[in-house]
Amino acid sequence: MAYFENIGKIHYEGKTADNPxxxxxxxxxxxxxxxxxxxxxxxxxxxxxxMTQDGSDPFxxxxxxxxxxxxxxxxxxxxxxxxxxxxLEKLGVEYFCFHDIDIAPEGDxxxxxxxxxxxxxxxxxxxxxxxxxxxxxxxxxxxxxxxYVHGAASSSNADxxxxxxxxxxxxxxxxKKLGGENYVFWGGxxxxxxLLNTDMKFEQDNIARLFKMAIxxxxxxxxxxxxxxxxxxxxxSTHQYDFDAATAMAFIQKYGLEGDFKLxxxxxxATLAGHTFEHELNVARCYDALGSIDANxxxxxxxxxxxxxxxxxxxxxxxxxxxxxxxxxxxxxINFDSKVRRSSFEMEDLFLAHIAGMxxxxxxxxxAAALKEDRFFDEIKEKRYASYxxxxxxxxxxxxxxxxxxxxxxxxxxxxxxxxxHLEFVKSRLNDYLF
Length: 435
Ligand code: XUL
Ligand code: CO
Hints:
Number of helices: 16
Radius of gyration: 24 Å
Bound molecules: D-xylulose, cobalt (II) ion
Order of helices and strands: EEEEHEHHEHHEHEEHEEHEHHEHEHHHHH
Helix content: 40-55%
Largest sheet: 8 strands, parallel, barrel
């Protein structure tokens, strides 16, 4: 059965297309800098927002009516698999991501939850085999159930730690079953509400203990997805331990996890941390730890995680520039951790929103490729740091100077000539690549 009877396969129709159910910029087979757009972008659809989000907010009831709702939670879960793959196929998206509880109902016990996961992942696997669609990453939801009120691995209760460990084990088992390329840890409630009753060091040691168990189990079952930490500064915790890319890297390095862990960076999490998205991507690149991205955008007027579909070309251009500089994002991808607005409640909005996000990233890719071909930023930076290419600068970089030799140099060097950045000019020229 088709859940979107009136919507066909979405094709690229070019910039002037009038058809709302067409790509105007994302042309999957078009070659950009030697690779197809599809290879550059590696889009993924997020099960949680697209299949389970109901449009409710703290002030209002669900607004989304979905035709895959069944009589029982399991019937709904089965219908969702059908509807989800219909969306992926019609959009031409080749990857997807999910939390365990997105795909299968928890039931009344852990045993029942695992049995439900087995049934649903059998159906998912069948669909994957039929369509060639792949699993970018899965994760365990260790934040929604009330047992996780004090955290998961960071919980003050050891039984909760054990329950979380069981969910991660199952997560890795299904990652192996479905050939998952990455496995994500977003520390939903791994943070604290008040330091008055929190042993921060102990809680972080425990998170590292769980991560090391995950690495060991992956080795044991012969399945090694790229592990990823997804930083976020706040919400739901007042203070989340993986605050931002730099904080997560300090954690990875402190516990010696560099060989197995990279970062999954989310645009809206970056802005909540007071950073731009490109800042977070750049920090990750500095550590060779750019793993994957959650594509969305926040509302700058609001202080919480709105997970909007990305429509800001300036932002996607700078994000794609970082990805190009990284040599691509594989085995990661661009996962739309984005949800339709509460007021965009019709089924077809799911398509319109993904088309908007994919087109916005495709525009960003094209602009970033032009910036790279023109060596736009390279030239600006080469000029800015030119004093390190010759003379005393080259000697500093080569490690041939010390405080005494530089003092001798400075005492003799009477006039320092510092140049302007001309930053307004740079920003205006950058606009030429967008419009
Ligand atoms: C929450 C968030 C999560 C993670 C996966 O803000 O981004 O959906 O991406 O747990
Ligand atoms: Co996310």
